[in-house]
Design a protein that fits this description.
17 helices; 77% helix; 372 residues; mainly alpha; Farnesyl Diphosphate Synthase; two-stranded antiparallel sheet
């Protein structure tokens, strides 16, 4: 669909019109906010500005899913259209997401993000292009860590600027704080799982992988953004409980879809190399099912190949075949369907207006049927 066709389509859809207006306001706030931060860095040194440039380039992209969930959580709880607290908290969530992506790419040694060089690779390339001294990869990782930390600090500043609704001891603040702690814990469990190897309680591999999925991704990607928006608008306990009953299974389905794409996705669509999760050694739910359901030979092949950065396309294709033959792909797809059905059943009974319900339904479909 062309841009003109998309604009025509959204002009007749009140949900799409409101989302477009929200995205535009969010983009405007982002530019203003980062513009003020640029002045701060210029006061320090012009040479420090590229740190913010990396944050700016990354935060301008993406689907704005977390911010939109936050917005409709706000609207479903009675918040006014394009309310400033929903815009500013959406900005905070987008900046937090950018920080997580920067650090995640360092941890995973991913050289690409959204079809472009990841932040650490961008800085490493800059080091090489300028013929600077010492090691380019170390400089790239170091600069990216600082860019990610800057992004975290800016996310906190943006959320604080919401005002009294996000102040100390408020429900929204407690959710925002908890979200950040859970993500760090989930990320640590993820890297721990990669290094302890298949001998670490193999009978519990699926349970551990699903726990990592929940805290590293599902809660902060879907559940917390929706709940934070609701809390900022004064949602009661019953509505927040229904938000959680809808969004947590949806978040898990969203991450399971990501796990499938990380192995079976089309590089031309995902913007990442084929089978990148295999080279990075990610012990996802998909992999856990393959290890628990595959033959001894299959487990040996998966264990030998997982985490090898030199896997060529033929080796990736072979591992894909082993994973599919083990039944892991079918089991993961069935789990995605189960979580999706649970989410939509809850949404059908949720005490929100028709426009909010329609928006959440659209976002949910996009989350679980995406190809990138």
């Amino acid at each position: 669909m062309s841009q003109a066709q998309a604009t025509t389509a959204s002009s007749g859809d009140p949900v799409a019109r409101e989302q477009d207006a929200y995205r535009e306001q969010l983009a405007s706030d982002l530019e203003d906010f980062l513009g003020r931060q640029r002045e701060v860095l210029l006061d320090v040194s012009e040479e420090s500005v590229p740190l913010l440039g990396a944050v700016h380039a990354l935060s301008k992209g993406g689907k704005r899913m977390r911010a939109l969930l936050n917005y409709w959580g706000w609207r479903g709880a009675g918040g006014e259209a394009l309310g400033a607290p929903a815009v500013r908290s959406g900005l905070a969530l987008e900046l937090f997401q950018s920080a997580a992506l920067i650090h995640d790419d360092i941890i995973d040694r991913s050289d690409t993000r959204r079809g472009a060089p990841s932040v650490h690779r961008h800085f490493a390339n800059r080091h090489t292009d300028e013929s600077w001294h010492l090691d380019s990869d170390h400089f790239g990782s170091s600069a990216a860590i600082l860019a990610g930390d800057l992004c975290l600090a800016l996310s906190e500043e943006a959320f604080t600027s919401v005002g009294d609704r996000a102040g100390y001891a408020t429900r929204a603040r407690a959710m925002f704080n908890r979200m950040r702690t859970e993500v760090m814990a989930g990320q640590y469990l993820d890297i721990l799982e990669e290094v302890v190897g298949p001998g670490h309680e193999p009978e519990r591999a699926v349970l551990r992988a699903r726990n990592i999925l929940r805290y590293k991704s599902a809660k902060y990607s879907i559940e917390h953004p929706l709940a934070i928006g609701g809390a900022l608008a004064g949602a009661d306990d019953e509505l927040l409980a229904s938000y959680s009953a809808f969004s947590l299974p949806l978040g898990e389905a969203f991450q399971l879809r990501d796990d499938v794409l990380g192995v079976f996705g089309d590089p031309g669509v995902t913007g990442k190399p084929a089978g990148d999760d295999l080279r990075e050694g990610k012990r996802t739910v998909l992999i856990a099912y393959a290890l628990s359901g595959g033959s001894d030979a299959a487990r040996r092949e998966i264990t030998a190949g997982l985490g090898r950065p030199d896997l060529d396309d033929d080796a990736v294709e072979s591992l894909r075949g082993v994973i599919e033959e083990s039944g892991a792909l079918a089991t993961t797809e069935a789990l995605i369907a189960e979580h999706t059905e649970q989410a939509f059943s809850t949404l059908a009974e949720m005490a929100v207006d028709a426009q909010t319900r329609s928006a959440l339904e659209s976002l949910a479909h996009a989350a679980v049927t995406r190809t990138a």
